């Protein structure tokens, strides 16, 4: 072997160092990947725990009774959303009774959220503006389909409605 060939050849890593180094390197990459995965999972704003999900059968039974009592009222809620300014919107809820007449004297609130950010729920007290229509402003960082959980109370009766409405940016 010439002197030049000995200089060009990279130094050889002994197997006693190479194989444990490969194993330690793979383990280190696995730990780094799991750390990144855990950090991303915890910081994801679209993840939300449903409030009261594990509260038990009694809470679910009470909710079923409330929905049945609400359905027995025969009321109806229609939700309309409109942008009022960049990042701001207005929710309008139209309440009618079983005969189709407007309900003007109810206390109405709405819980609004975009399904992509279900952890960012906004509770809005709606004020009556006439003819069974109630309105309130809310933050709207995004357009699209919004969920609106309406609660209306009048004379000891409570009405519940889960509606979906589109929020479209003005043209």
Order of helices and strands: HHHEEEEEEE
The N- to C-terminal Cα distance equals 79 Å
Instruction: Enumerate how many helices there are, as a single number.
Output: 3
> What top-tier CATH class of the largest domain fits best?
Mainly Beta
Number of domains: 2
The spatial strand order of the largest sheet comes to: 1-2-5-4-3-6-7
Choose one word for the global shape. Answer: elongated
Overview features:
seven-stranded antiparallel beta sheet; 3 helices; Immunoglobulin-like; 7 strands
Entry summary:
This protein has 171 residues and is of the alpha+beta class.
Describe the structure.
With 171 residues, this protein is α+β, with helices and mostly antiparallel strands. The chain folds into two domains: 3-43, no CATH class; 75-167, Sandwich (Immunoglobulin-like), CATH 2.60.40. The chain is built from three helices and seven strands. A seven-stranded antiparallel β-sheet has the order 1-2-5-4-3-6-7. It starts with a helix and ends with a strand. The model has no long low-confidence stretch (mean pLDDT 86).
